[in-house]
Structure formats: structure tokens, C-alpha cells
């Protein structure tokens, strides 16, 4: 099951500069991809186009042989079940318990009345405890999400993403809000989860060293275009400088 | 030419002119202040307090509270879902404009007018007041909550949407937990306002402690009226305290 982006472009509202320009990208199972680029290069937009949180202006997102940009809401929901996503700000529901936050990851597979009533089936709760154990914080299941440290919150978010056995893990700057030690631990966790099954992992990172240490493939993005695509050992200092080069027209936002 | 935007003297002068024009137009006679001793005499008659009718006063206070509670509670029950249809980020464009317009219209009709419209149906009775408070609070709470929904952090909403969950659940889990504490405090404020409205409606004969207070006033039972006022003040203070208590429990 490969992920294919074909001629993907995105322009927000009436802004002059498009956020993405004609992105073509194919990612195969087993690839751990790190996307690098300056802020404003289009990294977040690219990640969000994969699960259609952002709807591209042009182009296709093909997953499992199906163009998601043309998919029905139901088909899109089914595709999203196969894509777990984590975020820079963790995006947990702060006042709710860790366990409830993780159960949110199973919502599309549960009957509506279960989610509305909060009476979750035994199997879903068991699965939530299993993934919490996998990310190492089962003991925190009944704490409120907002009482946790940044690293712990990101673990909750990873557990939520794992609930429905995703084929793809998407991460929008998942370690940018963490201290260096927590950042490395979270990436180690993501790498070991990646190896468990033949998954695709697609992360935005801003630290070149972390990208080289964990990724099997690096994509460099500048002004909405792919300017580097290759294995980490090919990312020389000169190549990295090209990704991060100063642009007199001001690509940032 | 660059003109300074801030002209305090000009502003103060304009306001003074407005005040003078208003006083002159109504023919207010400030010399009437000489009759202030009349008010002092009146206040003197409140004392000693007459507690002989306190049981009845407490019963009527409960009626006032029940009117305000039923009106605002059902206002919240209906206004809450309406708010999602009146928020830019949760409603389709056409629905958003329709609901916004409806709420604005409803809010522009004074509670008193709504009550008068329903007097032929329910008479001068608590139900008339409940309906007036109910309709008015759909509009007020609907608008306030819609604004909270629009200002909610998009992060959790994105996270719930990314799981593939349907839109109802994105709203229920991505938005509601964030806004509940503020909704609660808004609700208690609206309850307090409703108690005040129901006091006034009482004065026109619709029941409750306001009704009793006005009767005591008209029959010169000032000492009993003073007890009514005391109970009302206690009630408002109690509501304020209850609001703070529930809010701290939810925020916790």
C-alpha cells in the first residue's frame, strides 16, 4: 500500500504565494520520511494534505488505489482510520482523562451512541490500555491530560493515533515543543513503532541531526517545492544549506 | 495635514454638552433634592423589620427562583445546539447566516414585549414570565456560546477530525470540553439576570417575591417589604456563590 501525491498544489484564500506547488511524491511501506524546511516552506500544509485536513487546490492524494480528494465523506473517514496523526501542540482534550483521550482514536469504529454517552465497550478500553502500555504510560490512564508533561502528552497523542492499527503515522513537528531529551525519546518510540509493522511514517522535523539519525528518507521543502529527496547520507551540508537558504523575496509567513 | 487622534478636551466638552441638553430637554428640577428628608422618613419606616410574613416570603422567593431557573435552563438547552448552527466554524454558510439572523431578531425583542405577547395565552402568571425568559435566553446564550465556539482552540478539533470521527463528535469532544467552564459562568450570570427580570414581572402581577414586594409597598407595609428586599439580596448573593462553586468544580 503506497501513498502517492500527484501534482499537489495548495493556495490559501487569495494569498499570492501558493503554500505548495506541484508536489509529486511516492512513499512505500517501510519508509520513515522526514520533511525538512524553513517555517513557511509548506511542511505543515503538505502533511495536512495527506489526510485532507487541508484540502489541496489541485492534484491528487492516492492511498490504497483511491484518490482521497474525490472520496466520499465515508471513504475519507475510512482512509483516516488508517492514518494516525500527531501534532506539535499535542492537541489533547485537556480537561478529559488520558484514557478518554486515547479512546477518541477509536471513534470512527464505534457506534455513535457509545461516543456520545461515554459508555465505551470493554474491548475498546482494553485496546486503549494496551496502546498506553505500548507508549509506556499505562499508569497515567486516569490522570487529566493537562496534568501531564509535554513528553507524556505526546505519548498520549501517539497512543490515540495507534488505536485503530494505522498503516501511516503522520507527525506535524511532533518534537518541536519538547526538550532535547524528550524529543529524542519520542523519536525513538516512533521509530520502534514504525518497525513493528510495515508502516509509513511521515514527519515534519526542524532539526537536521534528528532527521538524519532516524529517517530512512529525507525530503527538503523550500517555497512549496521539493528541493531535496534522498537517503540521509546524501544530505550533505551544502544540500542542507540549499533547503534552508535565505530567500530575498521572503518565503516565510 | 496630520491631526492628533486623541483630543481629551474636545471629548469632555462634547459630553458635557450632551448632559446639559438631556437635563434641559426633560425639564429635570435638581432643586427637588430639598425633599430628600421624605426618603429618609420612608427608609425609617422599614425599621423595625416585620418578620411575621417571612414564611410566605420564602415560598414566593422559591417561585421567583423556579421561574428564573426554568426559563434559563430551557433557554440553555435550546440555545446550546443553536449556537453550533450560529458559529462560522461549525455551521454551513447558509445555516450560519439564517441562525445568526434569527438570534439577533429574537434578542432585539425586549423580554417585556415577549411577556405581553403571551399574556393573552397564559394570563398574568408564572408561565408567561418563564416563556419570556426562555425565548430571550435562547437568543442571548445562543449568541454568547456561538462566539465561544468560534474562539475555541482548533488543535483538539483537528485531532478528533484526523481520527476520521464524524462532525458531531468533532464538536462534542473537540469543542465542548473547552467551552464548558465559560458556558457555566455565563449561565449563572444569565440566571441572576433572570431572577431580576422575574422580580420586575412579579411587580406587574405575575407572581413570586416581586409580586409580594410590590403588594407590601402598595399597602404601606414597609417593614414587611424590607424583609422581602433582604431575602432578594440574600438570593442574589447565594446565586453568585453557587456560580463560583460550580465553575471551580468544573475547572478543577
Q: What descriptors fit this protein?
A:
heterodimer, A: 253 residues, alpha/beta, Rossmann fold, 6-stranded mixed beta sheet, 4-stranded antiparallel beta sheet, 9 helices, 34% helix, B: 252 residues, mainly alpha, MetI-like fold, 11 helices
Shape of chain A: globular
Which term fits the overall shape of chain B? globular
CATH superfamily of the largest domain in chain A: P-loop containing nucleotide triphosphate hydrolases
CATH architecture of chain B: Orthogonal Bundle
- By CATH, the superfamily of chain B comes out as MetI-like
The major pleated sheet of chain A works out as: 6 strands, mixed
What does this protein structure show overall?
The complex is a heterodimer of chains A (253) and B (252). Chain A is of the alpha/beta class. Chain A has 2 domains: 1-82 and 167-253, P-loop containing nucleotide triphosphate hydrolases (Rossmann fold); 92-165, no CATH class. In chain A, 34% of the residues lie in helices and 22% in strands. A 6-stranded mixed sheet of chain A has the order 6-7-8-3-9-10, sandwiched between helices. Chain A is globular, with a radius of gyration of 18 Å. By secondary structure, chain B is an all-alpha fold. Chain B has helices spanning 8-26, 36-44, 54-85, 93-108, 111-122, 126-151, 154-162, 167-174, 176-206, 209-218, 222-251. Chain B is globular. Chain B has a single domain (51-251), classed as MetI-like (MetI-like fold), CATH 1.10.3720. The model of chain B has no long low-confidence stretch (mean pLDDT 91). Classes of the chains: A alpha/beta (253), B mainly alpha (252). Chain A binds chain B through residues 51, 53, 76-81, 83, 85, 87, 89-96, 104-108, 112, 115-116, 157, 160, 163-164, 170, and chain B through 155-156, 158-166, 168-169, 172-174, 177-178, 180, 250.
Task: Describe what is shown at a glance.
Chain A is an alpha/beta fold. In chain A, 34% of the residues lie in helices and 22% in strands.
Amino acid at each position: 500500500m503506497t501513498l502517492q501525491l500527484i501534482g499537489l498544489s495548495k493556495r490559501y484564500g487569495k494569498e499570492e504565494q501558493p503554500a505548495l506547488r506541484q508536489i509529486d511524491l511516492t512513499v512505500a511501506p517501510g519508509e520513515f520520511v522526514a520533511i525538512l524546511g524553513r517555517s513557511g516552506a509548506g511542511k505543515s500544509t503538505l502533511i495536512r494534505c495527506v489526510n485532507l485536513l487541508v484540502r489541496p487546490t489541485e492534484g491528487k492524494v492516492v492511498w490504497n488505489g483511491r484518490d482521497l480528494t474525490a472520496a466520499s465523506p465515508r471513504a475519507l473517514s475510512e482512509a483516516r482510520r488508517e492514518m494516525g496523526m500527531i501534532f506539535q501542540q499535542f492537541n489533547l482534550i485537556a480537561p478529559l482523562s488520558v484514557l478518554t483521550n486515547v479512546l477518541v482514536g477509536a471513534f470512527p469504529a464505534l457506534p455513535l451512541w457509545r461516543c456520545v454517552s461515554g459508555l465505551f465497550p470493554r474491548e475498546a478500553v482494553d485496546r486503549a490500555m494496551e496502546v498506553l502500555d505500548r507508549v509506556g504510560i499505562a499508569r497515567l490512564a486516569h490522570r487529566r491530560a493537562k496534568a501531564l508533561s509535554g513528553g507524556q502528552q505526546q505519548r498520549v497523542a501517539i497512543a490515540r493515533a495507534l488505536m485503530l492499527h494505522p498503516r501511516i503515522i503522520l507527525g506535524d513537528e511532533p518534537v518541536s515543543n519538547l526538550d532535547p531529551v524528550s524529543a529524542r525519546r519520542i523519536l525513538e518510540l516512533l521509530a520502534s513503532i514504525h518497525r513493528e509493522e510495515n508502516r509509513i511514517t511521515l514527519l515534519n522535523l526542524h532539526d537536521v541531526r534528528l532527521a538524519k539519525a532516524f529517517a530512512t528518507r529525507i525530503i527538503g521543502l523550500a517555497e512549496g517545492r521539493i528541493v531535496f529527496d534522498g537517503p540521509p547520507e546524501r544530505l550533505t551540508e551544502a544540500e542542507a544549506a540549499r533547503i534552508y537558504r535565505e530567500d530575498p523575496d521572503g518565503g516565510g509567513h | 495635514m496630520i491631526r492628533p487622534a486623541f483630543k481629551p478636551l474636545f471629548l469632555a466638552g462634547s459630553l458635557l454638552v450632551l448632559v446639559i441638553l438631556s437635563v434641559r430637554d426633560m425639564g429635570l428640577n435638581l432643586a427637588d433634592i430639598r425633599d430628600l428628608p421624605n426618603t429618609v422618613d420612608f427608609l425609617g419606616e422599614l425599621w423595625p423589620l416585620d418578620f411575621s410574613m417571612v414564611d410566605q416570603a420564602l415560598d414566593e422567593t422559591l417561585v421567583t427562583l423556579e421561574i428564573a431557573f426554568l426559563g434559563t435552563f430551557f433557554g440553555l438547552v435550546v440555545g446550546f445546539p443553536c449556537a453550533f448552527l450560529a458559529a462560522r466554524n461549525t455551521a454551513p454558510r447558509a445555516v450560519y447566516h439564517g441562525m445568526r439572523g434569527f438570534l439577533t431578531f429574537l434578542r432585539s425583542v425586549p423580554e417585556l414585549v415577549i411577556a405581553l405577547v403571551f399574556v393573552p395565552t397564559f394570563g398574568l402568571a408564572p408561565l408567561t414570565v418563564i416563556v419570556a425568559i426562555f425565548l430571550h435566553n435562547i437568543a442571548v446564550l445562543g449568541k454568547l456560546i456561538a462566539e465561544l465556539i468560534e474562539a475555541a482552540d482548533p488543535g483538539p478539533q483537528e485531532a478528533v477530525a484526523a481520527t476520521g470521527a464524524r462532525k458531531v463528535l468533532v464538536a462534542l469532544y473537540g469543542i465542548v470540553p473547552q467551552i464548558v467552564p465559560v458556558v457555566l459562568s455565563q449561565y449563572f450570570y444569565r440566571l441572576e439576570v433572570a431572577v431580576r427580570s422575574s422580580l420586575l414581572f412579579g411587580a406587574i402581577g405575575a407572581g413570586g417575591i416581586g409580586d409580594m414586594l410590590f403588594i407590601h409597598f402598595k399597602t404601606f407595609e414597609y417593614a414587611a417589604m424590607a424583609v422581602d428586599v433582604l431575602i432578594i439580596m440574600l438570593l442574589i448573593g447565594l446565586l453568585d456563590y453557587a456560580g463560583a462553586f460550580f465553575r471551580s468544580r468544573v475547572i478543577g
